[in-house]
Design goal:
The complex is a heterodimer.
Chain A lengths: L2 H13 L12 H6 L4 H25 L8 H23 L1 H7 L10 H11 L4 H30 L2 E2 L8 E2 L14 H21 L3
Antiparallel strand pairs in A: 1-2
Chain B lengths: L1 H47 L5 E7 L2 E7 L5 E11 L4 E9 L4 E8 L13 H5 L23 H22 L15 E8 L4 E9 L2 E9 L4 H7 L2 H9 L11 H16 L12
Helix pairs in contact in B: 4-6
Classes of the chains: A mainly alpha, B alpha+beta.
Chain lengths: 208, 281
Amino acid sequence: MAEDNSYLKDFSRGIIKENPVFRLLLGMCPVLGVTGYLVNGVGMGLASTAVLIASNVVIASLKNFIPPQVRIPCFIVIIATFVTIIEMMLQAFQPVLYEALGVFVPLIVVNCVILGRAEAFASKKPILRSLVDGVGVGIGFTLALGVLALVREVLGQGTVMGPDPESAIILFGENFEPMGLFGQPPGAFIALGLLLGLVNVLFKKFHI
Amino acid sequence: MRDVLRLSFTLAVVAIVSAVLLTGVHNTTEPVIREREQRDFLEALERFFPDIDEYETEETGDHRYDLIFDETGDKLGVMATAKTQGYDGTITYNLAVDSSAEIIGIVIVSHSETPGIGDVITTDNFQEQFIGKSFEDPISDGEDVDVVSGATLSTGAMIGSIRRTVTEIGENFLDKERQVLGLEDISDGIYRGSVEGTYGPLKVEVEFKDGRINSIEVLEHNETEAYYVDAYPKIPEKIIEEQSLNVDVQTGATLSAERIVAAVEKALEGAPEDTGGGDNN
């Protein structure tokens, strides 16, 4: 396997073949919790991506320093540090998003996508490849959250780019009664199930 | 042994580096966060009180009251920062009240009500019904304001909290006294009254004898039992003891207590069921 090829593979694997949401079904808690609006879903995806990239790089560079017996606590401390930094940054500079994401920001700490990449990839591979892997998985996660959030927002609220009334685009006429179910967690399950089915069909068709 | 030392050392180093990093970020973001909160608050103040010159802060328990003064030192009104328990976590809001104890604005500062259901409390539609209501209005569901069906708990909590906050502002900062029913004009007899609670009606029977409230009995209620025990029989005993409906309802069960007082007031406002004496069944 050529070396330059493996970077591309590391990158695309997280987006398509091992998409954390649509293929591995990891990190379902924020996936179901914050995807009521596109802005929130993508914001959550980007916050997780930032943590994922940072923790992947740090863990890959410390892999010889951290003894295997205490690797999990070390990983968690590293991840928690980045999550807390992101949380404080959001609160200071993106207060609206911070309010909307609420408890799901601190919960990034226990998002199994991030710990999973740390354990399965970053702790064994070189720094640069871990960075590429982090970017790839992060984009895959953000993309999945974005798609799910878009479906839910259109069906559940009848808008795009809400809930802020200034940026919200109302898609349907005044008489449109949005399907409130899709704004709720049960609707998230239904929408996710339908999307998973669609993704499976597409993968079969294109033999991925 | 050496292994244990090495493991602890690694963990300690990781933790220390993390702590240093966090302290640094905290110190840079903290002032930004404080400043933004302060700015948001001042903006809200200026929106509701355009003539504001300075304000004075008073804190009581969970609540914060900012007394607003104009250039000449006249009191323009009060901005309250109040908290209440919603359906899912605490709702924090600002309530702007002018000097005649009328509500001029509501701003929800933070809440975690269910999106699409309980978050109607942030909509103009819900908030507008409070504007212009004053200290003397009942501000209770079904009378002058309405809960939003489907979001009864969130909106009910807001209605109750707004009523208490306005009452508190009126009494403590604007020198108003709620007009309570005078007991002098009531003739002897047995009175019944009921009010709507969150889960159903609360009915009381009041016996009025020799110009005094003699006994109060709750005939029916649908209150949460755990809270209700704090309000009954304590509140009826208080009313009888003080011979007044202006009793302190700040118990662990403020809502139930308020409902009992309101039901007694309703009962005494109405006509007696029979003329009392206890001879006729």
